[in-house]
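The material for today's practical consists of a large collection of protein records. There is nothing in a record beyond a sequence line and a structure line. As an example, a complete record with its sequence and its structure tokens follows:
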Amino acid sequence: METSHKQNQTGTDMVQALAELAGILRNLRVPAPLLRGIMEQINRLGRDTFNLAVLGQYKRGKTTLVNALLGQEVLPSAVVPLTSIITVLGYGEVPAGRAIYIDGREEEIDLGNLSPYITEAGNPGNEKQIKQVEIMVPSPLLQQGIQLIDTPGIGSVYQNNSDTTHEFLSQVDAGIFILSVEPPISQEECRFLQTIRQHVRKMFFVFNKMDLADEAERKQSIEFSRTIIERETGFEVETVYLLSAKQALMGTIHQDERLITASRFPEFQQALATFVRTERQRTLLDAAAFRAKQAVREAVLKVDLENSVLDMPVKEVTSQLAALQEHFVAIQREKLDLAYLLKGELERFNDRLLMEMKDFESATTQTTRQQLQKFWQERNNRELKQLLPETRQVLSRLILQQFDQVRQSQEQKVEAWLAATISRFEQKNNALLQQIKELAASLFAVPCQTIASHTTLSPKSSLYFLPQIPNTLLFSLGDWKYRFLPRSLAGKIFLNSCLDEIHELVSMNCGRLRYDLSSRAADSIRTFKRELDNCLEEAMQDVLATIQAGMEIKNQGEERILERRRELAGLRTRLTGLEPQF
């Protein structure tokens, strides 16, 4: 509890410090993007709530999942498309509800009689013109500042339901996208996810109704849906939560721990709790602090530079400004050279990675074949109905173990390469910034601070390894095809089939690993290059704009110059006092 209080206090302090910084930036007439960035941070941190929306196609069990998260049956659910209105659930010690109409009217409603307001049957086509329904209930999840949003299902026969959900997306901070094992992901869901991707970055993917399919069907459905989502929508499905919301809800209502455990719902609850407790708050605060420090240093530069311009004769300022602009043209050319060199570094990295993965593929194929043959020889006297599935399990385990190890070692290598590359190019970039600093110092006697890049290997990985060849028609027959053959012949054919699969499995997983590392490295390099470009461009434009601002003050006379000097001195004192708070 103390940790949570400390985090809340830190967030409040950050908002106050950012608000003071924003006032200073307005006074200094900083470029609009700089001030807008600080205001965006204030808005994000100042919000009292975090919108976590449950999204997906109708009949996937969204409302049941919401009820399971609340641990009580608050919202009505049914097998037909039911929810037609955005329903916002927030924390309240006493259960209560209200309907908010499009014209601004509000109406208190009975939680036991929600259907006339939020269902298609009770409010067809939203004929009552309700904007949304808000419900307050006691809940540990909601008490942490979360607003849980139940949305109408997309893809139903009621087009207005889909429209309502699409219109709400801009207000969503994070989402829970509901799929189910049967049927698999639809084209409509893919299109919806593509739209969501434009508004929401954090997404939990839940496969509901797991109790309606066996293990093989679950795996096949998840594999298919994961592939489609990543290929078609741009989302990276890092973790899939397979569960039964209905079992979880029934288990909670009837206090049946066996049913709750069988639902696998606690794993998902734990992931949500971790996100709410740590990741969300930390991410917001880190982003705000980094942006604020950058803004403070840029603001100090503007103060010092404007002071120097105020002290300098107009003719000298004009001459030095012309020299500065000429120098900036040369810096732009050098910036293009850096981009070309950085592209070459990435190409050489990919070539090295390809060669290393080829060597690993060859060695791993041979090692895995030897280990599998040894396993078979040691157990060849067992019955085939036991030996065949055990052999498949061993093969899957061998594949996953070796690729988990190589993934870790390769990530470490990529991190090392990325750190070295970024360090080298940061030095080149800082040399260009130093040219700006030295010229500004010589012309206007102003120091200029730089901020080191924080680029690392992108953590966003969609990588998962295949422990077996995806099902073909023959493979889907399982081991039945061996039961009609003599024991020795069946065993020989099966073993040879597994040995043949090893090369394909290793090759596929090597390709997946190489693509994952290459893509993440490229993302990191693009981020770094963008930071370099922005850093140089902002530094040049800021210097020019500040000089022009000083010239405008000089043209207003000596009294205005003295007044502005006093203003700048006060602003500098406030800025240096603010920086430690970030």
Observations:
- The first strand starts at residue 50 and ends at 56.
- Residues 487-554 form the longest helix (68 residues).
